[in-house]
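A quick aside before the break. I want you to see a complete sequence-to-structure record at least once, exactly as it would be stored in a machine-readable document. Don't worry about memorizing anything.
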Amino acid sequence: MMFLGLGFLLGRDGLGAIDIGPHSPLLEVVATLTLALVLFLDAVKLQISELGKGWLVPALVLGPGTGMIIGLGAVALALLLGFPLNRQPIPRLVQEHVMERDAGHERGSMLVQHNCRSYECGEDLVDKLTAVVSSYPPQVYLAPYPTMDAKIALAAPGKLLLLKAFDEDKIRGFIDANMDR
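That is the input. The structure line, written in tokens, reads:
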């Protein structure tokens, strides 16, 4: 929790001293080092000679305890960094569910998807889309869609915008116009 609190304090929602996105290589390094540190500190506390007397507590700390900490940390990190940013395509049924409106989903969601398998996207297209989507509430999802017949597609319930190139004004205009549909 200390690492999470420090990250939040220094991150864009705190002091703004660092700005690490969910796809940042730096985040992967920090997460790996943090996990190694936590596991190492737990292992250092383990006294092999004492295991015969009280093995249950160390086993619970190193097993389920570590798993719970990793799981809770991952959920908190996903929420802080923008959970709707996906590296993998969103399955078709999930896409349809995201677009639903009913009593439990008063504000529907929007999809911003890209196809960099069939189209030349350049090195920074995904970064530009990530920057735009990250500036909106979590109901705006970003994901690749490698089988669609467009380079960039924006979808809201009953609306679709296909783009051949990144156009921030058109993307923001579509999202803003459909935010409360």
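Two observations worth writing down. The two ends are 38 Å apart (CA to CA). Residues 2-81 form one domain. We'll return to this after the break.
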